[in-house]
Structure formats: C-alpha cells, structure tokens
Amino acid sequence: MSIVTRFAPSPTGFLHIGGARTALFSYLYARRRGGRFLLRIEDTDRERSTQSAVDAIFEGMAWLGLKSDFEIVYQTQRFDRYREVIAQMLEAGTAYHCYASKEELDALRAQQQANREKPRYDGRWRPEPGKTLPAPPDGVKPVVRFRNPVDGDVVIDDLIKGRITVANRELDDLIIARADGTPTYNFCVVVDDLDMGISHVIRGDDHVNNTPRQMNIFRALGAEPPAYAHVSMILGGDGAKLSKRHGALGVMEYRAMGFLPEAMLNYLVRLGWSHGDQELFTREEMERYFDFDHVSSAPARFDMEKAYWVNHQYLKTADLAVVEPEFDWHLRRMNLDPAAGPALSEVILAQRERCRTLLEMAEKSAFLYSEIESYNEKDASKHLTIAAADILKALIERLGALPVWDAEAIHGAVHGVAEMHGVGLGKVAQPIRVAVAGMAVSPPIDETLRLLGRDRTIMRLGAALNHIGLRA
Ligand SMILES: Nc1ncnc2c1ncn2[C@@H]1O[C@H](COP(=O)(O)OP(=O)(O)OP(=O)(O)O)[C@@H](O)[C@H]1O
Fold it and tell me: What Enzyme Commission number does this protein have (predicted)?
C-alpha cells in the first residue's frame, strides 16, 4: 500500500502549535514509512476563511520545513467534484432529499428533549422499502442527507487510541449538502481523502466524533476507509484545548521569540511521543524513529521552560549554517544591518553558550551592528566612574598601539592595564563592557573587542571617557 498522509487545516487563523504538532506527526509518519505528505486547505467555510490565514499557514509550515509532496489542495476548488459525488449517491440511494423545515426540526428536537431523548433526526424523509414518503412541499429546496446504516457498529482501530466502537443507531442521517447545494464538512473530507488516496488520516482527537460518520460514507462510496490515528490535544495553561481563538500562539510567534525551527520540531515531537529516554533528535532521527506505538493518548501541556531548554541545546550545537539565517532574520527585524558588523558565524560562536534564544542573542549582539545610543543607566553609574577614567585612558593607549588585533593581544593589553593599576580584571573589564556594549554583559572581553574591531573599540572607549567627564 502506498502511504499518503495529510494535514488539513481550516484557514481561519494562524498555524498554532497544536496544529503544528499534528502536522508534524502526519509528516513524520509519511517520512518514516517512505510515503508522501499532503497539505489540504479546508476553506469551505467562506465566512471564516481568509487569504491571510492561508498565507500564515504556508508561512508556518515553510518555517518548520513541513513541505507538501503534492500540489496544495483547496476544497473550494473542488465543488464540482463534490456535486458530482452527491448526484451519484442520490442515484445509488445512499443519500436522499429531506424537505423538513427548520421549524419542524426545532419542534422535533424540543419534543425529544422533553422526553429526555437524545436529539436526532427521525428519518422522516428517509426512503425505506414499503414506506410512502409525503409529496415534496412546493418551493422548498431540500437538503441532502446521508443514509447512514441503522444496524451494526462502526469500529475504529485507532493507531493511537486503540479500538473505538460506535453503534450505528447512535448516528443519525447527516446532512451532506445544504439547501443551497453547498456540501458539508464531513462529506468533503471523505471525498477528498478518497480522491487523494489518503492511507492514514492523522488528525487531532477533536475529530474522533466525525470518524464513524466518515467511515460510513467511505463504505457507501464503495471504498474501505483509511487507517486513523487521533492525536491528543495540546492544552493551554487553563486545561482547555489550544485553538486559534483560545490561548494559542502562532508558530511564527515562536520564531519571533527566538526559537530555531528544528528546536521547535524537536520540542513538539517529544510532546506526546517518546523514543526511550532520548530528548534531543535531529530531523533525520525523528524521521527514522517516529511511530505510533510510542505516542501517548493523553493530552499534552505546553511547557515553555522545556521548550527554552531544547532551543538552547540546539543553539549550542546546531550547524552554523542552520543558525545563521535565523540570526540574520532577527537582526534585520531589529533594524540592524548584518553586514555592518562581524561575521554572523563568529558572533553565534561567541554568544551561544549564554543565550537560550536567538532573540536574546540578537539583543545582546546589537552593539556589534550599530552604534550604542545610550548606556544602561545602572551599569553606567556603577562602572563608568572617575576611578575608571584613568583605566579607560590607559586602555585606549595600549589597545591603539597593539601590532595585531586578535584575542591574545587584546587579552594581554587588558591584563596589563589591570596590573598597572593594581586592580582586579573586573575593574577593567566592566567599564570596557559598558563603554563598548552599553551594558555590563558581553562575551569574554577579549573576544568582544576582537569582534567589535579596533576602530570602534577605541571610539567607544573615548565616548565613555567623555561621558565620565561630562558627569564629573
Ligand atoms: N490544540 C490542539 N492540539 C493538537 N491538535 C490540534 C489542536 N488544535 C487543532 N488541532 C489539529 O490541527 C488540525 C487543524 O485544525 P484546525 O485548522 O481546524 O485548527 P483549530 O485550531 O482546531 O481551529 P479552530 O481554532 O477553528 O478550532 C486538525 O487535525 C486538528 O485536530
């Protein structure tokens, strides 16, 4: 059997991490089994679907590197096909017209509720052998209902949740086309999954209730349903399902917070899946090991601290070629020109031990790509003091006279000044940091100055001296 999986979001908002993890599981399963992965945009709800949401989904998927192996499918481009299948089902008797008005159905529901029965359609327009249907009322456009089997059970052998059995008598005859002819959600999904040869439907378990109905429609169309895997929900801090309208942040907001896409994938894959006690996975490892046997059916909670930890592990070890473009993106986002300072790879190497996110790294490296506009007030009043003025003067002299500008030479000069003034290294390094970075934190001082370059260093030490002079 050829394996085809799909991710089918509705474009009613951004791609959030709940959807992204479901997409990832679907993608990984296809990769693991040598299959293909499809992205389908379920945009039939025209009032809520927007182009900007479609773009946001593409953006999120592209950033995470979850690429569709097929051309992207839009349900709104398939209405002719849905109409065709509805006509076939009416012809075959697996669907029928229902003329019941809204008032009639409301009255039916009220009566059922009064009798403490489960509200359900009573099959009044369902053709049965020997049953005479009333004449269709004039001027009423009918809906089309699916003729759900009445006997037997639907059995879902869910790859994550195990066996789920639902009696057909619990399922009523679903509307598959509204009175205006537009097809409904569950029906479109089946036609699509069938036409697209989906072998495994991997989706959130908020869809479990749809599955028996969809399986029945598959069978009515003469096909065997695909395999199903219902992935647990990611919940927010309040215990409710994360959704576009409730509590979720878009995937791209994690980019803005400084996450690496690979780290995000790693964090998401571990949210509900395990492989021994391994925590960190390369993309190749995820693709090699992922399976449903070790996916938990319990809901998962997003743990920001753990996500930061994973990101930091990645930042510390990832290929520079992976980190550089993201770092570049952050610098530009802060209106900094990555070409106006040292090579990004060198800065990443200098900063990555101490930064958990790329945003932090960009903020702590901004001084290398732009002039500093002001000093951190607290740091300046502590370190840019009259006592520091002589130290800064001596540094300007020594650093200006160095024959080469490398870490070793800088280190020697800084230590020399500390010795000359009979002070500890901190008394020299901290004023330098505030002078060149605007704040008292930076990578080791020799590395910081090497990256900044001699001219900028000397200029900034001079500006700090002026600052002390002005305050004196
Ligand atoms: N919190 C969640 N955790 C895990 N999977 C989710 C979560 N929310 C949605 N999904 C899954 O993501 C896929 C796309 O869902 P969809 O686009 O309908 O998102 P949604 O956030 O549920 O939408 P809405 O905000 O309209 O409820 C579906 O398979 C759905 O089950």
Answer: 6.1.1.17
